[in-house]
Every structure is written in structure tokens, then in C-alpha cells.
Design goal:
single chain, mainly beta, nine-stranded mixed sheet, globular
């Protein structure tokens, strides 16, 4: 129940995102994550990402394209190495994510290194 998972996320976080893993296999990982604040330009070096918006509203930019609004039910996809970022418009802003192959939680490179680290980017929590 994705709505129940989103409801269990904390109201605030010290990290930009909090996720919980639904599967965690070498070939792919499936997660639900909530976005708490603007996520600056970054990329993942090891995996393609499929993001299905499941709650809230926000904007996302992918590559050189202009930012666009994302609402529940919209699917966003991009290949590894693609620069992207997120901004929250309405909380809770949450996604179902499928990463192929599995995304290691430390696989995050900010375009501007001063914008963050793996530790400030995401916290993984068991919410069951």
C-alpha cells in the first residue's frame, strides 16, 4: 500500500530524501522515497531510474530540458549519468522508484560538490 508507506515517513528530515526499500536485488532495487527539500543538480553513475510520482507535487529537471511539474500518476525515466534535480511544491512529495541495476545509496554525485554528500542526500529507513 503505497499511500500507507508515504504516511509513515517522518514529517521532517535532516536529509533531502528519505526512502524505504521494497526490493534490493543486484539487478534492480525498488524503493519509495519522500522529497523534503530542493535536491540540487546531481546524477547517479551506476543505474537508470524510473520514477512514478505517488503523492504531492513538485518540479523536476532532466538534462538541459526546462523544469516541468510532476503530479501523482506521472512516470519519469532517465539513464545513468543524466543530470537531474527536484523541487517540492506540495508535501508530501513522494515517488515509487525502480533503479536498474540496483542503486547503491552512496551513488550520488552533485554537479556542485558543495551542494551535498551521500550522507546529506538520503536516509534509508525501515518503515514497516
Amino acid at each position: 500500500d503505497l499511500d500507507a508507506i508515504v504516511a509513515r515517513f517522518p514529517v521532517t528530515s535532516d536529509t533531502m530524501l528519505v526512502d524505504t526499500r521494497l526490493t534490493d536485488e543486484p539487478e534492480a532495487s525498488c524503493r519509495v522515497f519522500r522529497v523534503y527539500r530542493t535536491v540540487p543538480a546531481h546524477y547517479h553513475a551506476t543505474c537508470d531510474e524510473y520514477l512514478l510520482a505517488i503523492a504531492g507535487r513538485g518540479t523536476i529537471f532532466i538534462g538541459d530540458a526546462d523544469p516541468f511539474e510532476v503530479t501523482p500518476g506521472q512516470l519519469v525515466f532517465f539513464k545513468k549519468g543524466t543530470i537531474h534535480g527536484l523541487t517540492v511544491i506540495e508535501h508530501p512529495f513522494a515517488f515509487l522508484s525502480v533503479d536498474t541495476p540496483r542503486r547503491d545509496p552512496r551513488d550520488i554525485t552533485f554537479v556542485n560538490a558543495a551542494d551535498g554528500t551521500p550522507e546529506t542526500f538520503i536516509a534509508t529507513r525501515t518503515l514497516y
